[in-house]
Amino acid sequence: MQTNITYSSFVALGDSFTEGMSDALPDGTYRGWADLLAGRLAARAPGFRYANLAVRGKLIGQIVEEQTGPAADMGADLVTLVGGLNDVLRPKCDVDRVCGLLEEAVERLAPSCKRLVLMRSPGRRGPVLERFLPRMERLFAFIDELGARHDATVVDLYASEAVGDPRMWHEDRLHLNAEGHRRVAEAVWQALGLEPEEDWNAPLPPAVPVGWLARRTSDVRFARQHLGPWIGRRLTGRSSGDGRAPKRAELLPYEG
Question: Boundaries of each SGNH hydrolase-type esterase domain copy (predicted)?
């Protein structure tokens, strides 16, 4: 393992996963794995610069159109691209089109940076995941192909039982919580060839059984606060990211 690698700049592209939902800070903003990774990289490189172009709710076509051009022009040492999952989780999805757009993004980004990182996105274990599993596996197999073809690093988060554990996820069941994001940051850190600080894939202790009433109460709260609004946006063609700007649109010196 090469532990003396130094990256002087980092640009992150994607959707809510890379924006940092739902690793909430006291002021209501989100941190997330990309911010955590940037902080650790900055500690190794004076003058380190960081941009995060990810916006919640973005589909792969929007990521290609809105983020890849600016990211490629920045010429950062390190670029991460995670997208397509919002597409495959929709009722109707042309997976071939999603793969084609992802390929377009990779072909634009790979020549512009020293290291491109792709990911097999994590999935919360449960019945919803099983429903979309065939689409996700097609997407992830194509990501593996892109990684091999363009010499990009692929971080396999989907295979992790630990990150897929429901206890790593926010109550909305769509986004990782703070511990989940922390583990993802460590996974990417190690994939970059840097000295491990811990086993990011270490199994969680056995879960404490939850009673029937508590489970049903949680399900009702989830449906009312999260599932209902999500379905409403799908039916009306709206997105949680409509009109929202990236939290770090420019490649500027990192400030923790």
Answer: 12-183
